[in-house]
Amino acid sequence: MDRLRLAAPVMFTALALALGFPGCDSSDSGGKDAITDSPGGADISGDRFDDHGEKFTLVVSGSGFAPHEGQALTVAFLEAGDDSAKGTQSTTITGGDFTVTFPDVLEAGRAYTVKYYADLSGNETCDTPPIDHGWSASVPAVTGDVTLPVTHNTNFDTSVCNFF
Questions:
Q1: 104 near 56, Cβ under 8 Å?
Q2: 37 and 59: one domain?
């Protein structure tokens, strides 16, 4: 009988992960699975099950980018101190502005860096500034959804292309 009681939460978790129930996540790169709630309040945390908590949205909103009107702009975000992008998106600068949204990607308590560049050369790759124009911005430890306003300037980040 004890084996059945122990197996039930694990079987429920496997089924919940397979069906994609809310609160379940099997997308992290460590091959671990997580569930934030389980029947009977069983504690299923540990090596196999890590609770990643609530995810928050990142919105990068640029203004004053008229010098790059019609050019492609690519945005990447990474955890502060990390060297690999967690996500990238591209858009076209229109009316001197742009908005890029990364839904449900930020984790509470973690800080992030946003890297972005305008493809001034038009070759669809990031070329070290000043060939293309690139910038970076910091996002402090996250407590909720983040809107990061950025404005055009000529203080280029010459390392920005390392992340694309």
A1: yes
A2: no
- State how many domains the chain has: 2
The whole-angstrom separation of Cα 5 and Cα 69 is 62
114 and 78 belong to one structural domain: yes
| Strand ranges for 11-160 from DSSP E | 24-25, 34-35, 55-63, 72-79, 87-92, 98-107, 112-118, 133-139, 146-151
Q: Which residues in 94-103 are b (16+ Cβ under 10 Å) and which e?
A: eeeebebebe
**Any domain includes 33:** yes
> What three-state secondary structure class fits 79?
strand
Range of the domain at 76: 55-163
User: pLDDT (tens digit, 9 = 90+) per residue, 108-163?
Assistant: 999 999 999 999 999 999 999 999 999 999 999 999 999 999 999 999 999 999 98
Query: Smallest Cα–Cα separation from 59: which of 102, 105, 112, 108?
Result: 102
Residue 10 lies in a domain: yes
The model's pTM is 0.68
Report the greatest alpha carbon distance in the chain.
71
Across all residues in the chain, what is the average pLDDT?
79
